[in-house]
Amino acid sequence: MARFLEYQGKAWLAKAGMPVPKGRPAFTPEEVKEVAEWIGGPVAVKGQVQAGGRGKAGIVKLVNTPEEAAQAAAEILAKTVKGLPVQQVLVEEKINIKKEFYCSFVVNGAREARSPMLMFSTEGGMDIESVPEEKIFKFNVDPLFGLQTYDAVDLLAKAGVPAKELSKFANLLTKLSKTYQKYDCQTLEINPFIMTAEGDLICADCKMEIDNSAVGRHPEFEIEIARDLPGVPTELDYIGWSIEETDARGTGFLMNMGYDEVSPGYIGYHPIGGGSAMMGLDALNQVGLKPANYADTSGNPVASKIYRVAKSVLAQPNIDGYLLGGFMMANQEQWHHAHAIVKVLREILPTQKPGLPCVLLLCGNREDESLEILRTGLADLMTVNGPGRRIEIYGKEHVTDTKFVGERLLLLSKEYRAEKEAQGK
Ligand code: GDP
Ligand code: MN
């Protein structure tokens, strides 16, 4: 999913007429001071990262003066939360809280619903996971007509909102429901949704995720990569997205996983499908190897698409091996994979990575033919001193054998490392 940071989501909420605190993002303590001066009075300084629980992580601070705001920002900007460095903060007017509520719209994919679902609770502020089930009130919203005021009132009354506040809340929820649909959101969570001491309602936090498939309909968002990435896209992310964006025939997913390019033990990772990907990680974890990237070529992609993914995986500069991890009896035609892999290995191994360990596991539909394509297509490289001397090809007999595959890769990659070091590389 394409996710927005809090300040971005709030800007889109404001454009849709929703009440949000007055504020602006900033990168440095000096900038924070200026924003705080512009706001006037006490402010909240909030670290902007794609992670919940920021309050608990100490990157939401409430202060009284611009100088304190700058100081708080300096502390927040020095932090890393859940592996993500805080590079930006949102400075906004401090809200005087009377009560915090929880409110979100998500997609309810259950057969009987298949619609957006509103969740509301009077227990706002904390993670929804820690709110008792009986305190969360849910309503499936009609996807054609949206949330009606009477349904919102009904839900809010059940949740325990006082009668005299019902119309004010219902009004906002119906507006929020329209916003959710207008932006093609997958998730729109406002937690806390605040009633101020003055009696106004305001969206104090915002988690907005856009349905990846709808990103093309929203050029205004300027989303470059319609994917759920943990941070700023890397070169590999752009390459991966370019493969997917230009060819809808099957999945050709490729994404960065924090490969540092200098440490040993990284394997160019090419699983086929989500279940395979988990088993492949098991294979690597068991022997202390690491995936350089994440990938997935499933859903019967064409050979040209698999070729582009495999080539990008193999081109990563300092990998100690390549794993084609077909840990599933795939019912896609596996010979597309076989053709693609033969072409890539023939291009890469002789000139760029002679001797690179390549463990190729391919099972399922057209397995015999596929393995034959690999064997004959790579035979001349696989001689004792050939550039493909560490290619190993396996089929269904090893389909769930993560231990075996991990151990083969470990052994081969150690040999390869030692050989490279002996050559002073
Ligand atoms: P999260 O922990 O990542 O969900 O970050 P939130 O934006 O939800 O902030 C966490 C908590 O900080 C909220 O539940 C509020 O209790 C508190 N908080 C955030 N902004 C303000 C504010 O402007 N005024 C006050 N008084 N509290 C705030
Ligand atoms: Mn929150």
Helix/strand structural class? alpha+beta
Give the number of helices: 11
User: Under the CATH scheme, which class of the largest domain?
Assistant: Alpha Beta
Hetero groups = guanosine-5'-diphosphate, manganese (II) ion
Strand composition percent: 15-25%
Q: What's the story with the biggest beta sheet?
A: 7 strands, antiparallel
| The CATH architecture of the largest domain | 3-Layer(aba) Sandwich
CATH superfamily of the largest domain: Succinyl-CoA synthetase domains
Count of spatially separate domains? 3
Mean pLDDT: 95
**What is the terminal separation in angstroms?**
40 Å
Helix percent reads: 25-40%
In one word, what is the shape?
A: elongated
CATH domain topology of the largest domain: Rossmann fold
Cα-atom Rg, whole angstroms?
Answer: 26 Å
Counted beta strands: 20
User: Low-confidence parts, pLDDT < 50 over ≥5 residues?
Assistant: none
Protein name: Succinyl-CoA synthetase subunit beta
Domain ATP-grasp: 10-240
GO molecular function: ATP binding; metal ion binding; succinate-CoA ligase (ADP-forming) activity
InterPro entries: ATP-grasp, ATP-grasp_succ-CoA_synth-type, ATP_grasp_subdomain_1, Succ_CoA_ligase-like_bsu, Succinyl-CoA_synth-like
Task: Give an overview of the whole structure.
The chain is elongated. The mean pLDDT is about 95. It has about 425 residues and is of the alpha+beta class. The protein has helices at about 5-15, 30-40, 65-75, 150-160, 165-180, 235-245, 275-285, 305-315, 335-350, 365-380, 400-420; strands at about 1-5, 25, 45, 60-65, 80, 85, 90-95, 95-110, 115-120, 135-140, 185-195, 200-205, 205-210, 255, 265-270, 290, 295, 320-325, 360, 390-395. The strands form 5 sheets. Strands 1, 8, 9, 10, 11, 12 and 13 form a 7-stranded antiparallel β-sheet that branches. The longest helix is centred in the last third of the chain and has 21 residues, at about 400-420. It has 11 helices and 20 strands. α7 (about 275-285) crosses α11 and α8 (about 305-315) packs parallel to α9. The chain folds into 3 domains: about 1-20 and about 95-225, D-amino Acid Aminotransferase, Chain A, domain 1 (2-Layer Sandwich), CATH 3.30.470.20; about 20-95, ATP-grasp fold, A domain (Dna Ligase, domain 1, 2-Layer Sandwich); about 235-420, Rossmann fold, CATH 3.40.50.261. β5 (about 80) and β6 form a beta hairpin. About 35% of the residues lie in helices and about 20% in strands. The site of guanosine-5'-diphosphate has 17 residues, from β3, β4, β8 and β11. Manganese (II) ion binds near residues 191 and 205.
